[in-house]
Structures are given as C-alpha cells and as structure tokens.
Amino acid sequence: MDTQSVSRRNFLKVSGLTGVMLSLGLYLPTHAEEAEIINTAGAADLGTDLNAWIRIDALGKVTITDHRAEMGQGSYQAVPQIIAEELEVPLNEVAIVFAQGNRKYGSQITGGSSTVRGSYKNLLKLSATARQMLIQAAANQWAVPVTDCYAEAGHVIHKPSGKKANYGTLVADAAKLEPPKDVVLKKRADYTQIGKPLHRPDTPLKTNGTAGFGLDKTLPGMLYAAVERNPRLRGKVKSFDDTAARKVPGVKQILKVKMLVHSTPREGVAVIAESTWAALQGKKALKVTWDDSGFEHLSSEEIYKRQHEALQTNEGLSLKQQGDVADALAKGSKKLDVVYQTPYQSHSCMEPLNCTAYYQASKVEIWGPIQAPDMVQDFISKEMKLPREKVIVNMTFLGGGFGRKAFTDYPYEAAVISKAVGAPIQVVWTREDDSTQGPFRPGISYRCEGAVADGKISAFKLRMAGQNLGHWMGAPKDKPNNSTNEGFLKPYTESIKNLSIADVPFETPIPVLWWRSVYASTNGFAYESFMDELAHEARKDPMTFRREHLPDERVQKQLDKLAEVSGWNSRKPGEGYGMAITECFSSTVGQVVKVSKNPNGGVKIDHVWAVMDCGWYVNPDTVKAQVEGSIVMALGAATQHEVTFKDGMAVDKNFYSYLMPRITDIPPIDVFIMENDADAGGVGEPGLPAFSPALTNAIFDLTGKRVRKLPFSLATV
Amino acid sequence: MNPRSPHTSPRWLNQKTMAMLSVGLFVTTVVTSAFTEERTPTTRPFTLVPATAPVGRDSMASVKAFANVYKVLMSPRCMNCHPAGDIPLQGDDSHRHAMAPRRGIDGKGVYAMKCTNCHQPTNTPGLHTPPGNPDWHLPPATARMVFQGRTPNQLARQLVDPKQNGGKNMAQLLEHAHDGLVVAGWTPGEGRTLPPLSHAEFTKAWTTWIKTGAFAPKP
Amino acid sequence: MSSIIITINGKDHSLDVDPQMPLLWAIRDVVGLKGTKYGCGVAQCGACTVHLNGEAVRSCVTKVSRAAGQKVVTIEGLSKNNDHPVQRAWQEIDVPQCGYCHSGQIMSAAVLLRDNPNPTDADIDAGMAGNICRCGSYLRVRKAIHLAAGMERKVSSRNE
C-alpha cells in the first residue's frame, strides 16, 4: 500500500473530524477558544444515519463510528475495517469518529479483549444491512430488479447496464427503507479488507502530534487541577496548610475533595490553577496532614507472608473439583508441592490518568482517555444524581489503558471538582500519582500440589491466595473467585482426572483492579510453571507432555506450529528452551522462549516465538503487534518491576524505580497466527500470560534453577 | 583491584622502567609505596616538581593525603561519571545509569542521548531528577579516566599520568580541584549524599598530595 | 515576569511565563502545541522530547528560560506534510499502538538519523533507550529506523 497517498488522504478526512470532535485545541491551537465541539450525536453535517455506526453524506463520504476505546489495541481500525468490508467502501476513504457513551451501542467497555469478539457478528450484519438498503434504494430509483444490482467501492452498480450511483445519492432514500431482516454476509474467502494487513488509520495522526489524547483537550475558560490524594486509599484528610500553595502564581482555588474508588471514598486536596505547571507547583507546596487510623498499613513482606500462611492452612473455596485429588496425591509416586508468587503491578500507561469535565446547569460533560464511556456514564449518573442523558461522556484517544482506564474514579473526580469550582476542569495526575494510587493488579500466591504416575498427571491441585477484584465490586465473599482458572486451557480438565482448583480468601485495604489479561497474567505463571515441573518429574519433553494432556485438535495443531516455528525438536545441548500455553478471553497463545548464559552474568533472552490462535480476526498486523506488545509488557512484569508496599503505601513512584523495558531489553519476537474458521477470540491481552512461564521454564532448561517468584532479575538469576 | 601483583623489588624495577619510558612529568607517581620512594628519590631521571615550584617532598604526608583524595574520588558523586565501562553510574549505590546512555567520543553522549538533553545547566528540583551543570559530561573516549574498580595505587598513578589524565600537567591538575564539574559534586541535587569530605578538605588533601610529590600508596 | 522569545517550528513566540516553567508546559499550555507529551516529569521516559537547537532535549526538565532566543522544533514542526523519513517509515511499519510516546520516539529517531544516517541495531539502542513505550512497539521502532535510514531524505521543509 502506498503509505503516503493513503495517509495523506486519510489524514485529512480523519483529522478534519476527530480533530474537531476530540480536541480542536490541539488541531488548531490558536483557535481553541472559539472552537465548537462537534460530536457524533450532534453533528448534522456528517450526513444521514443508516444506523448507529454508519453515516453517509450527500457526496458519499462515509463516517464510521468506533463505539469502543482506542488505546493502542486497534479498535479505531478493527471496527471500521469490519464495517467497511460489508458496506463495500475502502477503509482508507472513510472518516472515523469515536462514539459517546450511549446504550445504543450495547456494551462499550473496552476490556476483556472484547471489541472484535464481542461485536463482529453484529457489525458485519448491520453493515451488510446498510449495504442492502443502499442497493435497494438504487434499484428503486432505477426501477430495476434488486438482484441485478451490487455494491462496490462506495457505489451501487446495475450489472446489466453498468449504471452506477454513488452512495451519497442513495443514502436519503435508503434511510427511509425498512431494514431487511435477512441479509447475506460475504464469505470469508471473498473479503477484500478483513484479514488483510491494512495500515492503521490512526498512524498518521500519531506521527505528527495531531492525535488528540485526554490531556490534549482544551475548553474555553478551562482550569487545571492537581490533587494531593492520601497515599493510603482509606485514609482521610485531617487538615491541610495551603499558605504556600496559595502564593504560587496562577493558583486560583484550593479545596478538599472526596471521590470514590469502587465504593471506597478517597480523600485529597485539589489545587485549581490557570496552568498545569501552576497546579503542579501548588500541589507540591501543600502541607496535608492525613488521618490514617482505623485500617492496616501493610508491607509487601507481610502481604506475601500471610498469603503463604493461608495456603498452608486453608483449603479455600472450591471452584473446580473432579476425581479424588487427596487420594491421588497420597498414592502418587512422584509428588510436588510448591508455591509461586506474583507481584502487584501498576498499569503505568504512558499517558498518566487525567480527565476533563464541565459541570453546568444540571448536566456534566466529560472528555478523557476513557475505556468504558457507558460505565462512566452510569456511575456519574448514579453518584451525581443526574439523568443518564445529562452525563455526556466523550472518548479521546487513550495513551494506554490496560484496564486502568476502564474505571470510573478519575472521571468522577473531575466531575466533582468541576461542579465545586463551577468551571471546566482538567484534572492532571502526575506520574507519581498514577504509579502510587492504584488500583493495582493484585499480587497473588499459588500453592500447587501434584503427582505423576506412568508419565501422566495423576493429581493436580491449585490454590490461589490473592485479592479478589470482584470483592471490590460487590461480589459475595463466600463464593470462590471465578477467575481462578483463567489462563488454564480447558482441555487439561479433560485429561487430568483428579483436579482441584480453589480460591483462598485474602483481603487487604489496597485497592485492586483488572490489568492486561487480568487473572491470567498471574495464573498463567503458576499453571504453566507447574505443568513444566510435572513434565520434568515425569521425565517427559515439556512439549510432548502438554500434547498428552491437551486432547483437543485445535490445540494440537497449534502445538505443531509452535514446535515447527521455534525449532523445538532440533534444539541443541546448552540451549535453554521453555514453552507455555495459556488461554485468555477465548484465544490461546503458545510461546517458546530461548535463553542462553549471558557472558556478563545471568541469562539473556535470545528469541521468543508466539503462536496465536484467535480464530476469526480482522487485521493480522494488529494481531501481531498486540502479541509483541503483550510479550514486552510481560517481560517487564516478570523481570523488571513490581509495586511494593511499605507502611500501607506504594513505594515506587516513577520510572526511575518502577523500571520499564526499554529498546535495549527487547529480544527478537516472531508471532504466528493460526488460520481456522473458529469464532473470533480476543487479541489485545491473550499474548501476555504465556511469556513469563515460558521464560522461567527456559531458564530451568538452561540452568536447572526453577524461578517461582516474580519478578526476578535476568542479570542475577 | 589488582591483588595478584606482588609488590616486591622486581615489580618496583618494572615500574621504574615504565617511569623512565614515560615522557610525562609525574614520574614519581610510579613509586608504589612510601618505603620504596624513600630509598630511591635521587635515582629518578625526572622529578614531578619543576625546579621553579619547589615543594617539600614527603611520601608519608603525600600518601596520607591521597587516602582522603581516594575516599572522595571513589564516592558516588565522583565515581558515577568515571565508570569502568562506557555507561555512567547513578545513585548512591552506583547502579548503572537508567536508559544506558553511552559515553560517545567526546564524553557528551550520543544521538538523542546526549548528556545535556536531560542534564540542565543547574540541578532540576525534586528527588530523582537529573543533576545539572553547564558542562555535564563523562571523560572522553580518548582518556576515559576510569575510577570505578581502581585501587588507591592504580588511581594515584593514573591521575598523574598525562596519557591517562587528559594531558594535564601539575598546574592543571592542581587547578582541577576547582573545575566546575568537580565542584558540582558538592551540590549534587536533592536526595544525593555528599562526598565524604567538604570541598575545602578535599582541595587541601588534593593539593597536599600533589605538592608533597603525588606518591602512590602501596598496591 | 518578562517575556521569553523562542522560535518554535520556525515562528517566533513571545511567552509571558515563569522562567522556571518547564519548556514542556510552555509548549503545551501556553503555545498550545499538544503533540509534545507529558509522561514522567523527570526525564525518564522521553515522551516530551523536542529539538532544542537540533538536540533531542527532554522538555519536562528543561526550563523555558534555557530556550530563550533559541530554536525549538516540536513534532508538529518536524515536517510540513508528515513526511520526514522517520514519519514515513513509522507509517509504513505502523509503529504506534496507543501512540502517546511516539512524538518523543520520532523526535529522538530524527536526531539519531541526522547524526548517524546508517545506524546499526546497537546504534539504535544507544540512541533510543531514553524513550519508553509501554505498548512495547520497540521492535517496530527499530525496524522503522532502518527503513527511514534507507529512504531518500526528501523533506518538504525542516524548520530548524
């Protein structure tokens, strides 16, 4: 594809719309004050709606609504690419706008890798329906049989005569037609766009600074807020001295604020100023005295000690129980009983949390890097007692999300401050705020017990002790955490006759939240490390051992591919190879990691091979990018960073101690995609969980040393 | 860091030979201990101290002063920019500098990773922010002036060897105690420990060491 | 407050700001160019990288006063038509995911290629290790820099 012509053309169209809609201040900086904010709900000049996603103007320009958040994972491409296929328009000629939070789109929560897998069937159908209406409108205008007409590249063509009509001349009539009930969808083999590595429409916006992120939003009269929040969630503001803060030029107002994290109030002091810098300086000058009584101030050591103790004494709440595990463990000739430990993590999106809100006359409008506009709408509507339609939520581009921006606390906080101040407010979180406030991925410990007999697993028992996200959202505490088996391949449960999975309840006052691939991000390490340990006990090749325990044709094919691309069967002595295979959000990813001794000490990663089976997919290049990125994120979480707590507070405040992988740390990564006719699975997250066990299994293969605690240092392992 | 070298007379002879081969001014520094120095001063073909700037040669005082010099030079504030490799060190624990900036030929970094891209003319306020100086740099690749891992003996010899010290003569060496970047070690920015001596104490030790003959301690 | 005059993307701007204000916030909040990003505030992540007299400075720790009378180029001014070889290579490889770090990545890569038109992988590592990408696009960054190095440098206009 000709990058330049495509990106130019696309850039003009796309930025002309999204630039205006999201952040005119960014697109035309000097005119920000006069900018009219256009959004999909109110913009008449975008043309006629054929449905909530498709709009065509009189010139035939197609505008497609992306109802999901774009945080790097590619919804801004995937949703339009699906629609463009069935609508018969070239992706590079459509304009794309973000939806506001609105129930007409169904769920907009961009999490669980659900954008494509959750909506592709509907999107295909509604696009084919729109196409059929346009064809019908043309047939009516020409008074010809509809079966003689077809659509191509934004036009309807009458086959016998070659007559051609632009969609723009048909859309008004088409919109009046009754949508047909049954439409014929294209066959996958006939796709010209889906399944092709088309360029991302947002790339040109991201190479010249025009993509509007949350922090780029401006409004006339907007003020900036920085908030000094209690470093312990449950603490209160006892008092504060703002004498020095008020002296900072540009600081206008200082007020105590209270917002909700899940249902727990979080207190802080907000500094409202004329510029970001003034707000940050004012925040620094505040002296706040906290009241941190009435709850525990835990350290990391204490947290993991308690988890380990609980795993020794508590059988937990059973999630899955089959066969007689106790009996099989007792009879097993080779037994294993080990504990794995995984750390708390921060999302640390490159764009720190921020949100812009304008509360006026019993309505509030929100702009921000928001993964779940519908959830934000619901939450603010409930908490601020406003009708849903009076809570207008606009998504910008997100500078990373990873689950953190699917939460409601920071938009709600911005709304609360705007209401209190009576002006449009942009709340800016510093990197330090972002790193230390949480909610975090929970650190979880796992006790795994197992036995092998005749080269196969005769007993497998896993207990997990870690904070339950669900409990923060109101799930009953006497029921097992139904995420305990996330990451674990279902076919294992067919081959392992004596199997037990249980959740050992564990609580702390530290707030937790989903983090890319959620429970699978830690479960996968325990499950697939233990599988490797069992394979070793059984004296079986780890790949063969998995094969023998995964009686599923699709998985077997994936293992074939994994062995083939990684050269698994031709590995040489002195080379460390490890593998792991995990399931996450309806996709399965197998990975092989090759390591060798680093001449400067420790171990270095030589290569990573990943095979993704996500069934039906939209864009193979995006799938590969997501798996590459997931592996890098997993590499950081396994070998470089963890959130540690001291006295109830997160210790690591910024990238100088919460170390991120850098370009110098990245091994070659090759990603392969399985081709099959299965339904679409997730893409944004499933590439993550298999990496850390594949890595530590490789280290065991090389050194004989079993890593059971993350993170660890490659330099000293 | 050179525990295998015996400090016996063959070693001394060897060093003396090296000294004689050296065209530099600071040959007295090749002595490896006060004892050997005491026995052999008049046999030197060259003298550290030019005739026009007579000083009292005193190996005991010199070595004693160097102990203080060494303490300072090996403190993180000095050593971090005199690393063994081409990547500076960072922090009171002298860990490898985050993001692995490279020395570059001129010691000022490379490409998008030049020192002054982050290190400003003055310290940036706050903890864990880049310390500043208008002249922030590492020693250049042509004279890497490594402190990290050097024994007192090795460091003393290196400091006065013009081939290894960037071609400095005695006057320039003396003056180096007042170099802007050296002095900056005593205003290291928030959260960083100071060198173990004050700058005045360091200057005194440095000057004494050189003016009493720049003797190297025993290896 | 006296005004500070800075040439940004070829145009003189007179800014009435606290001279201590980081260049980042002056560019974003005062000049209104939002392509330069805040990531860490302590020169760890490189999202705020701009060119100051041609060098890839971290604007979050650079006081606006340091830029007085100097030439600053931001991502918006790297080329007129989004066609600097680095930008074209980024588009061809589809490097960005969320894209937030890439203003900084591109500004760093542009300096790398100016100083070394044919970088090896090791050179790229040495030049780009100051830019963090949480999405993990590093392999594509490397690939795109190699691609850009091979492109004929036809830049419509460099406002440097």
Overview of this structure, please?
- Chain C: GO terms for molecular function: 2 iron, 2 sulfur cluster binding; metal ion binding; oxidoreductase activity.
- Chain C: InterPro entries: 2Fe-2S-bd (IPR002888), 2Fe-2S-bd_dom_sf (IPR036884), 2Fe-2S_ferredoxin-like_sf (IPR036010), 2Fe-2S_ferredoxin-type (IPR001041), 2Fe2S_fd_BS (IPR006058), Beta-grasp_dom_sf (IPR012675), Diverse_Oxidoreductases (IPR051452).
- Chain C: It holds the Pfam family Fer2_2.
- Chain C: This is (2Fe-2S)-binding protein.
- The complex is a heterotrimer of chains A (717), B (219) and C (160).
- Chain A is an alpha+beta fold.
- Chain A has three domains: 3-207, Aldehyde oxidase/xanthine dehydrogenase, molybdopterin binding domain (Aldehyde Oxidoreductase, domain 4, 2-Layer Sandwich), CATH 3.30.365.10; 214-294 and 353-428, Aldehyde Oxidoreductase, domain 4 (2-Layer Sandwich); 314-345 and 440-703, Aldehyde Oxidoreductase, domain 4 (2-Layer Sandwich).
- In chain A, α2 (75-87) runs parallel beside α3, α3 crosses α4 and α15 runs parallel beside α19.
- The longest helix of chain A is centred in the N-terminal third of the chain and has 28 residues, at 115-142.
- Chain A is globular, with a radius of gyration of 27 Å.
- Mean pLDDT of chain A is 92; it is low at 1-44.
- Chain B has helices spanning 9-21, 34-39, 59-73, 76-79, 115-118, 152-160, 170-176, 180-183, 199-211, and strands at residues 89-90, 95-96, 109-110, 113-114.
- Residues 1-54 of chain B have low confidence and may be disordered.
- Chain B is globular.
- In chain C, β1 (3-8) and β2 form a beta hairpin.
- The longest helix of chain C is centred in the last third of the chain and has 14 residues, at 102-115.
Query: How many structural domains of chain A?
Result: 3
- Percent range for helical residues of chain B? 25-40%
Low-confidence stretches of chain B: 1-54
Shape of chain A: globular
* Strand runs of chain A, count: 27
Helix share, percent of chain A: 25-40%
CA-based shape of chain B = globular
Approximate strand percentage of chain B? under 5%
Number of helices of chain A: 19
The fraction of residues in strands of chain A falls at: 15-25%
Provide the gyration radius of chain A in Å: 27 Å
Task: Give the oligomer, counting copies of the same chain as homo and different chains as hetero.
Answer: heterotrimer
Largest interface: A-C, 72 and 63 residues
The end-to-end span of chain B amounts to 9 Å
